[in-house]
Amino acid sequence: MSSTHRAVALALAAALAIGAVAGPAVAKPAQNENDEPSLVVEVQADGDAVVTLTATYDLTSEAERDAFASLQNDGSARENATRRYAERLDSVARNASDRVDREMRVPVDEASVSFDERGDVGVVRYSATWKNLAAVEGDRLVVTEPFASNYDTDRPFVLIAPDGYELAGATPAVDAEGETTATWDAGTSLDGFEATMEPGDSGVADSLPGFGVGAAVASVAGAAALGLRRRRSP
Known about the structure:
By secondary structure, the chain is of the alpha+beta class. It has one domain (3-223). Helix content is 24%, strand content 27%. The chain is built from five helices and eleven strands, in the order αββααβββββββββαα. It has helices at 3-16, 62-73, 75-97, 213-216, 220-223; strands at residues 38-43, 49-58, 112-118, 121-130, 135-137, 140-143, 157-160, 165-171, 176-177, 181-184, 194-199. Strands 3-4-2-1-7-10-9 form a seven-stranded mixed sheet. A hairpin with a 2-residue loop joins strand 5 and strand 6 (140-143). Helix 1 (3-16) crosses helix 2 and helix 1 (3-16) packs parallel to helix 3 (75-97). The longest helix has 23 residues, at 75-97. The two termini are 17 Å apart. 46% of the residues are buried.
């Protein structure tokens, strides 16, 4: 397999990981720019969200280094992988719309991809805007689907509240917190997922299940490594 084909295959594998869900203006990378594989949902005050999938490549491996370079430098491969990611998200969003009383969608043409190198790790972040991911209930934002329906993440799942909001409640229990973030470890079943965000200035609520002194001092980047099989490709 050529390095370009391998790059696309690895990228599509990351995009298709979204398929674990039963049945995210131009997107920008989420504020939480982990260097580990992760799925980050950055909720906006209007209920939209930027959904960013982070995939990594081991640059000490010739095959993965070539794949990373091919994806970064081959415009066609890059566009194909990014579009496939957004199309998969859009399919999930439209299916999830049947389980909520609002229309969800992901504008495929607004998806983006960014590249970064951190030492011997190549980092690729695919981002797309998910319209109406959160329900707007007065001054509250509530996220349920598609994560509530048999979603098992193979990488840490990170939820970021909008500026000026805090996480007021979450099910299942959160594994780690940041200033305005909540993280669930890789492998966590999110069946029945619900997260409620409300205006506030104190960050993530200390009383949330799973939050304690130990979790409070853990950074989101550190949380991304918890329970994660150290694989350098999606």
